[in-house]
Amino acid sequence: MAAVEHLSVWPVAQQLAREQRRGRYLPESSAHPGKMLPALAREAISRYTRPGELVFDPMCGIGSTLVEAAHLGRQAIGLELEPRWAKLAAANIRHAEDQGARGSAIALQGDARRLGRDLLNQYRDRCTLILTSPPYGPSTHGHVRKHPERVVKLNDRYSRNPNNLAHLPARSGPRTRRPAFDEVLGEILAGCARMLRPRQGRLVLTIRPYREQGALVDLPGQLITLAEQHGLRLCSREVALLCGLRGSELALRASFFQLYHQRAGTIERMLLIGHEDVLIFRRAAR
Prior knowledge:
This protein has helices spanning 17-21, 38-48, 64-71, 83-98, 181-195, 219-228, 256-264, and strands at 9-11, 54-57, 75-80, 104-109, 129-132, 143-146, 151-154, 202-207, 210-212, 215-217, 232-241, 244-246, 249-251, 275-283. With 286 residues, the protein is α/β, with parallel strands linked by helices. Helix 3 links the parallel strand 2 and strand 3.
């Protein structure tokens, strides 16, 4: 039998996100504003690991990477800065175990900047896959609740913690007295490089371009440059399709606010983003 060739476009949105999580995750998981699609996590884990190997997520949120790894018979460790989400990730892992997950996973609360030094140093050079999706802004589209006279946005923030990566300034300076986003993310990426298995290990980052005052920001391109400055080498740049496939047609999965701005014409020539970049790295040669 001929081997199946992997696609460079990952069709991970054939089901709506809420359907992918229904019953598999606790209901309160819907409150997290930046959840990874379970199908995307499964695809990455299936491609780059075998049963029993170690999967790690340094910004694990509600634990999507950990839950899917456990269901696929892998070992998994997650780290989350925010206590609320770390606790929920642990609860989702217990839920997966109750459903008969063949692997094992653990979620810890901690700061990923210390990876491979004094934090999780026992797992240095042991991770076959590191899979994560870093936050890149203080808020997301979240959820909406429609009222006759207004629309209310909710569940659009990771936390109010000023040290969260999502809240850090784009640039540091005397006025902010806080490290810049790139500085902290660079520390995390350097820690990920220390945790990867030499040669076989892969870091998979999912990230999408975004709009700032109507202009499209190539965040994936910026992230590639940053990763290569911190001990990683790009292997491949692929696409996770956030639209469903219906024959030859694409079924859009846009948010309420994306559709609102496009239909209202508030952003000139606005095109809806229907994909997420999947960046695959390995540890650079010393």
